[in-house]
Amino acid sequence: MILATAAQMKEMDRIAIEELGIPSLDLMERAAEGIAAAVAEVAEERAEYLPDQAGESLCGEVCTAWEKRPEDARRAMVFAGMGNNGGDGVAAARLLAERGWEVSVVLVGDRAKMTADTAAMERKLQEAGVRTELFSHGDAFLSSLLARCAMCDVFVDALFGVGLCREVGGDFASVIALMNSCAQTPVVAADIASGLSADSGKVLGCAVRAAVTVTFSLAKIGQFADQGSLYTGKLIVHDIGIPQAVIDGQKLLCRTIDAPWVQAHLPRRPADGHKGAFGKDYVLAGSVGFTGAPVFAGRACVRSGAGLVTIGTPASAWGVVAGKCMEEMPYPLPERDGKVCAAAYDAVMEKMSGCSAVLIGPGLGRGAESDALICRCVEETPQPLVLDADGINAVGAHIDSLRRRMGRATVVTPHDGEFARLGGDLEKRDRAAAAREFAAANGCVLVLKGHRTIVAAPDGRIAVNTTGNSGMAKGGSGDVLSGMILSLLGQGMAAFEAACAAVWLHGRAGDLAAAELGEYAMTPSDLLEHLPAAFGSIF
């Protein structure tokens, strides 16, 4: 699924209205049709959209009054801001009223700032016999509002559109708190859940927890990245009439990773292929006390289709690693204090020279000599390279080693802490922007791991993953991912595509494991066991 930024959506609206002459009220009317249809669907299947447990209410009657409501009524409460997003909500209220719904419309904000289109939709609503009211903190108003909220089937959130870039406060925060507190009433959000940043997915102070979001023309980055997926609910992309040529004219560089995309990009295995045709991959990993990491990475590499996998590991760890390997080929390397040392360089480079792709880092440990070896190998390895774990930590103090690889395929796979050690800035930049900036500056593909992992390419492309769960947040899961990326690189995939496919399949295996075993009990070994089903699910 292609994702757009707020600025891109604003420009598409401008072109459609100003250059192509499409009336803005027509676009708003079509947006309202999508909202009204979603409201009707949610009301019909209401139980499907309710959370497992009701939250605390601002009014003690709100959570109990539902049982007393007339069964034959359909009621909606629309909370609308003064911008055009509010106009979408007001227009949807009119459509619902025309279809027999009882509709209340509460306007929030300064009426003097109401846009012309929203004012026009308010007049049409009034002509249909529905009056609007302005939100206030008066006791009588709040008492009436809470009583009506308790009797609603659905709330419509039309407070803010995708242009929001400041923290939410004042009356808007109060209304958001009200909607969130009425846990038995599902919320349909217009375009984006109010309070979410459309570009980053960050919550700007507070945000509506929508059951359904009806977004217009294209999905937004913030509906998938960071916290956005937790507040968006079910996402419906609704066509409001912006011509496809206008959309195609934008430089849309962000997308989600999904099953059809992975299926289209995975290399097909020729029927007459032999083990040498599917990659000869090299893993430099492990140290005394960290013997699981090379095994996880090597096994994941084989499970993801590699023909041959060699593992270089310190001599004193080799026996343990070898005892756990069946398909992989571990061999001992010179070491000092349980870690690879400078004397291992020749042996490492000799083995690497015949390989299709290389992974450096899982479980290598830290030390001046091992760090120096890692940096030297990073700089001098001509093959596609995956840099993970202690490989990242070693390069973090010598970032020039990474930059010297510009022009060669390199995939770097940090979590947030490792990203900070590489110089990435998540304090001032959102995850997507920071990932894109780092990838461009260092000429690498960055896999920024975490909830909704982000993959960034040096040319500005961004992909947001849609699979995975918290059961994968256990030591060893990252080693499995790095081995999968290595395998796909070794089979000839380009770095960005290999990283995206591996991230999605890794998360898919995690989801399958969680479905069978639960998020508490599943382990990285279970990820490996579910990789066959993950691959099988897309063919």
Plain-language structure description:
The protein is α/β, with parallel strands linked by helices and 539 residues long. It is built from 21 helices and 21 strands. The strands form 3 sheets. A 12-stranded mixed β-sheet has the order 8-1-10-21-20-19-18-17-16-11-12-13, sandwiched between helices. Strands 4-3-2-5-6-7-9 form a 7-stranded parallel β-sheet. A two-stranded antiparallel sheet has the order 14-15. Helix 11 (292-303) links the parallel strand 11 and strand 12. Residues 53-69 have low confidence and may be disordered.
Strand order of the largest sheet: 8-1-10-21-20-19-18-17-16-11-12-13
Largest beta-sheet characterization: 12 strands, mixed
Radius of gyration: 27 Å
* Strand count: 21
Number of H- or I-type helical stretches? 21
Fraction of residues in helix: 40-55%
Multimerization state? single chain
Low-pLDDT parts are 53-69
What structural class should be given to the helix and strand makeup?
Answer: alpha/beta
The separation of the N and C termini measures 19 Å
What proportion of the residues form beta strands (DSSP E)? 15-25%
Average predicted confidence as pLDDT: 94
Described by the principal axes of the CA atoms, the overall outline is elongated
